[in-house]
């Protein structure tokens, strides 16, 4: 019997192994703006947007003072954080630019616009917003088409004008 996961299913949270909680909080809390919802001593902290119990768990249970995970190995490629509007994405892009935080990429995927960077431990982070579903591109057969082209960063920043 075939099974399809319910359409309303979503990813609730992600736990990331980090080497230093304070360094990770400098990125996720101080730069990206997440709020601490719970701290477990010096080994774990839960952070969220808008008071949810936690969108991201940061822990040092197996990684305290270790090096970053190898790039060419199985593991997390990136965690994706969805912003509600294009203007919200523009605001965080400007914040990152003002902080001179290095980006690893910026792409227009047709369905979304995304900015890519790494956290202090080398975990990939995608910050993006989804275009309204009725504007998602489709191919000649009417099936969803996603691609990758350069994100127009000037147009993105124009959202703040």
Low-confidence stretches: none
Average per-residue pLDDT, rounded, comes to 95
Share of residues in helices: 10-25%
Rg from Cα: 17 Å
Category by helix and strand content: alpha+beta
Number of helices: 3
Main sheet attributes: strand count, strand direction, barrel closure: 5 strands, mixed
Number of strands: 9
Q: Tell me the distance between the termini.
A: 54 Å
Query: What string, H for helix and E for strand, traces the elements in order?
Result: EHEEEEHEEEEH
Strand order of the largest sheet: 5-8-7-6-9
What is the molecular shape?
Answer: globular
Q: What share of the residues does DSSP label as strand, in percent?
A: 25-35%
Q: How is this fold's topology laid out?
A:
Blueprint: E1 14-17, H1 21-31, E2 35-40, E3 44-48, E4 56-59, E5 79-82, H2 86-98, E6 105-108, E7 112-118, E8 124-130, E9 149-150, H3 153-158
Parallel strand pairs: 1-4, 5-8
Antiparallel strand pairs: 2-3, 3-4, 6-7, 6-9, 7-8
